[in-house]
Amino acid sequence: MKPTILTATLVLGLVLFGPLLVPDAIAQNAVVQLRVSIFNSSPISPATIGRAESDAERVLRDAGVEVLWLNCFQDAQHEASLGFCSEASFPSHLHLRILRVSRGLKATTVGISFSAEDGKGCYADLFYEPIQQLQGETHASPSVILGHAMAHELGHLLLGTNSHSPSGLMRAHWTREDLTYASKGKLRFSREQSLRITDRLALGPPRDLQTPVMARN
Ligand SMILES: [Zn+2]
Predict the structure, then answer these.
(1) What is the C-alpha to C-alpha distance for residues 124 and 115, in angstroms, rounded to an integer?
(2) What is the DSSP annotation of 55-106?
(3) Using one digit for the tens of pLDDT, what is the confidence trace for 109-155?
């Protein structure tokens, strides 16, 4: 299992490239669908998660992807919903977990995705405390940070290996300026990344073909 880590580097003046701005043309021709199960075991509120999903949804729609969120309960009272929620199928049904903290990662690590040697993976984690820390340091809203981190990690799962880029949503280390762009709805996938994502989703296996990949933690 090969983890790919997103951290935020809050050093002004480090921005060498501006975020890539993608024409809205792709957004108007969304042709592929993605289903994402969300499991939240952090203190972040359902309302914040809902706003984050809206932000991530917009970013993905810009890339040509329509996403269906499954907000999955984790207590015994909602066992009935877990069956559908627990389905995972690469690349059409992915999972995002929101945890309070990471295990053994740097304190600034916002998210991590897990993929196999062939570049396929269904699981990614996001971490509440680094998001809270970023909120305090940048004044970006937690839903903006979380929503774009969700899109970034889904981007890793959909783009495969070596999917970081020097600028834009898939930059490995976000700066304060990146989060300013995010707050304005301008931190996006590049056009090339968008085409790779839609191609991969369009060519993915049927929804009933399971490709199990184990998450690390
Ligand atoms: Zn990353």
Answers:
(1) 9
(2) HHHHHHHHTTEEEEEEEE--SGGGHHHHHHHT--BTTTEEEEEEESS-SSS-
(3) 999 999 998 889 999 999 999 999 999 988 899 999 999 999 999 99
Burial status of residue 15 (CB atoms within 10 A of its CB: 0-12, 13-18, 19 or more): middle
- CA–centroid distance, 126 to ligand 1, in Å, is 11
Strand 65-72 to 32-40 pairing: parallel
Could you tell me the strand order of the sheet in which 123-127 lies? 65-72, 32-40, 93-99, 123-127, 109-115, 2-8, 173-174
**Residue 19 covered by a domain:** no
DSSP E strands in the chain: the ranges are 2-8, 32-40, 65-72, 93-99, 109-115, 123-127, 173-174
Taking the centre of ligand 1 as the mean of its atom positions, its distance from the CA of residue 110, in whole angstroms, is 9
Count how many domains the chain has.
1
Residue 17 dihedral angles phi and psi, to the nearest 5°: -135, 145
C-alpha to C-alpha distance for 131 and 128, rounded to whole angstroms = 5
Domain assignment present for 82? yes
Ligand 1 centre from 164 Cα, in Å?
A: 6
Q: How far is the CA of 183 from the centre of ligand 1 (A)?
A: 19
**What CATH number is given to the structural domain containing 177?**
3.40.390.10
pTM of the model: 0.81
Domain span at residue 203 reads 2-9+29-215
Assess if residue 172 is contained within a domain: yes
Residue 18 lies in a domain: no
